[in-house]
Amino acid sequence: MVVFWLLFFDRAASDAPAVRVYNAPPHTPQVLIMLSYRHSYHAGNFADVLKHIVQIAIIEYLKKKDKPFTVHDTHGGAGSYAIANEHMQKTGEYVDGIGRLFGQRFGDPLLDRYLTLVAGLNPVGHLREYPGSPLISATLLREQDRLQCTELHSTDFPLLQQRFAGDKRVRVEKMDAWQGMRAMLPPTHRRGLVLIDPSYELEADYTDVLEGVREGLRRFATATYAVWYPVLDRQRTEGFVRRFVKAGFPDLLRVECCARADGSGRGMTGSGMLVINPPYTLAQQLSQTLPVLRQQLCDVGGHTLVKPLTAEH
Known about the structure:
- The active site is at residue 197.
- It catalyses: adenosine(2030) in 23S rRNA + S-adenosyl-L-methionine = N(6)-methyladenosine(2030) in 23S rRNA + S-adenosyl-L-homocysteine + H(+).
- Monomer.
- There is one protein chain.
- The protein has a single domain (40-309), classed as 3-Layer(aba) Sandwich (Rossmann fold), CATH 3.40.50.150.
- Helix content is 33%, strand content 19%.
- It has helices spanning 46-62, 86-91, 109-120, 133-140, 156-163, 177-184, 205-219, 234-246, 282-297, and strands spanning 5-8, 19-22, 70-73, 80-82, 129-131, 146-150, 170-173, 192-196, 224-231, 252-258, 270-276, 303-309.
- Strands 7-6-3-8-9-11-10-12 form an 8-stranded mixed beta sheet, sandwiched between helices. A two-stranded antiparallel ribbon has the order 1-2. Strands 4-5 form a two-stranded antiparallel ribbon.
- β6, α5 (156-163) and β7 (170-173) form a beta-alpha-beta unit.
- α1 crosses α3 (109-120), α1 (46-62) runs parallel beside α4 and α1 (46-62) packs antiparallel against α9.
- The longest helix has 17 residues, at 46-62.
């Protein structure tokens, strides 16, 4: 008999429920573990702002060509989130994320594109809904493009499914993220984005992500892979990034936005993205956008980073 020890872990300085699993086999299927993580507690926070800006930049680049592409989203969540939802109101994390930006324009094309998209979902001029990554993708896709999402949570999956009911461009499956990549990659199209953003509540997530990217590249080598990661402990974060560098990916970009100084003792102090096969324009775009984010979202001691990483062979 396998026994799982569950400890509650505060990822983002809130009392939102989350679990971290110890003494479980490293590749235990998530379906065997009762996960309590819900992204609705964290939707619209500063980490979402960074992730969704990077996502938009990549998709808009893909749209420059007429050829169709596919976005594969490994952790679809509920698709979108009502600001009035008790989870969002309980943590209030969105206040220091999208709440600081909504209704404004900053003269930065990428940031303003993101804000225009969010505003389009809130036509009355008040922030009532925040889009998750699936809804952002679906909003940006053309008729010929496709979106495929996986989500395992028993509450979020039907919400995600309902959100895109009737949209023939979107496929939603109740699957573990890594199972979904094996089952759904490669897609029909040769161009695309694979967005990978686990909660990292499972200890195995830190190693499974790299293996997932490797498996994905074996199946869908022409895609861009965007991996989100939290900054909780700087030493652990740097170890996570080093494993990607040592993996030898020839084209790897690191992007980071930390709202607070490292080691502030306040949960998640920042987040980042590792982008494999990034568009050649992405680093320059983000080098212009992230200083604006730093000014708007970061406390004293916070920082932003855009850095191409050299593969180690």
